[in-house]
Amino acid sequence: MPVRRVSMISFHTCPLASQEGKETGGMNVYVLELSKELSRQGIAVDVFTRSQDNQQPYVVQVEPLFRVIHLPAGPESPVPKKQLIQYLPEFVRNYQRFVEQQGLTYDVMHCHYYLSGLAALDIVRQPASSNLPLIMTFHTLALMKNLVARDELEREETERIDAEFQLVREVQKIIAPSESDKAYLQYLYRAEAAKVEVIPPGVNMTHFKPIDQQQARRKLNISLDERLILFCGRIEPLKGIDMLLYAMKILVEKAPQLKVCLWIIGGDISQPGKWSRELQKLEKLRHLLKLTAVVHFAGQQPQEILPNYYNAADVVVMPSHYESFGMAAAEAMACGVPVITTNVAGISGLIDEKHELLITSVNNPLLLASQMELLLTDQARHRQISQDVRPKVQDLSWPNITYKVIQLYEAALNDVTQHTAVVHL
Fold it and tell me: If you write DSSP's letter for every residue of 24-56 in order, what string do you get?
């Protein structure tokens, strides 16, 4: 059965966050790019998200078949993620009111992150939505985050873990970004194998593509004669940025002849006195390791600028303790830039034995430093790897990924339709 209209729930973060001046991450980009491509393939998409600013329009028509709907739920301002669960009932009431007033019906509902899934469970308990298939993309898993947490502030509450178990049981289909996340869902959350489909995030291959390195550096006002290492992502402990700083210190001491620098893309640095806890910790570490001349915090950057940063780099490093996939790594590879990633990241499955230099281990700054040094000094190997990495992500174009998502939607819709028909016999 064809899918014509999708309700997309992204409760805690808006896909238009970068345009609204808020910090973004992989999930924002995922929801935005998937919704755009669905609409281009003729499927109407409404993304429902919590309103965080009453000065922003409540309904934004992004493309002819794609709009974002901001629903009031709690204060219309940013709220810490762990406090948002209390506003789910208001969000659900406003969702139902909007749908009823607009006379809307949907074929499937796609939920992003466990909070959106909880909202969806409440929505489908209503008679008007009782046959709506639920598709779940968790993006991160609480049990895995707790595995790598370093203190209690980083740990996820039992409430979230219980919610994820419930969602695994009750939704029709789950999209896992990698084989490793599918395995975690099966063995840690008891997910049925047939319910979980591995569909990695997509990459905008027309946006992320190779450009001349010197041209990219001139646009960003970056020195042309330095060897540039780049990190791009959220600034949080599980990203392993502290390990990258240790590796930089080792690299500087081992190879003083290399004129090397590290640029860190991510985090709000607009107000120096109000940096996040993790940014402050990294800044202290930068001073402690005497890397102030080597490490540069560039803050969060709009999506349209990121190709310049990737192409300006000699190597991109993703030193995560846990990474369900790694969209930044895929974007960098699409630009033809070598990426060193830890072996726990989902995207590491795309890297074969021939390129084992690109796979490092968690919390091993000595190994990472030696890998970075080899890539920066062996020009022939660097050129070869640069040529090899882009083809590895060619299949991740958003049209390809969206086609697989549509197939999953249709399978879920057919399952629910057949079940409903049997019940009514």
Answer: --HHHHHHHHHHHHHHHTT-EEEEEEE---TTS
| CATH 3.40.50.2000 domain locations along the chain | 5-202+397-424, 213-395
Q: How many residues does the chain have?
A: 425
Annotation: CATH topology of 213-395: Rossmann fold (3.40.50)
> Under a CB-based contact definition with an 8 Å cutoff, are residues 171 and 192 in contact?
no
Residue 355 has pLDDT above 90, yes or no: no
Q: Which phi and psi angles does 285 have, rounded to 5°?
A: -65, -40
Q: Quickly tell me which residue has 């979230």 as its tokens.
A: 160
CB 231 within 8 A of CB 317: yes
Q: How big is the chain by its Cα radius of gyration, in Å?
A: 22
Tell me, what's the pLDDT at 273? 83
pLDDT at 19: 63
CB 420 within 8 A of CB 131: yes
Euclidean distance between CA atoms 160 and 111, whole angstroms: 15
DSSP labels, 273-337: GG--HHHHHHHHHHHHTT-TTTEEEEE---TTTHHHHHHH-SEEEE--S-BSS-HHHHHHHHTT-
Superfamily of domain 5-202+397-424 in the CATH hierarchy: Glycogen Phosphorylase B; (3.40.50.2000)
Alpha carbons 322 and 234: distance in angstroms, whole number: 13
User: pLDDT grade, residue 411 (50/70/90)?
Assistant: very high
* Percent of the chain whose predicted confidence (pLDDT) is above 90: 84
Q: Is-above-0.90 flag for pTM? A: yes
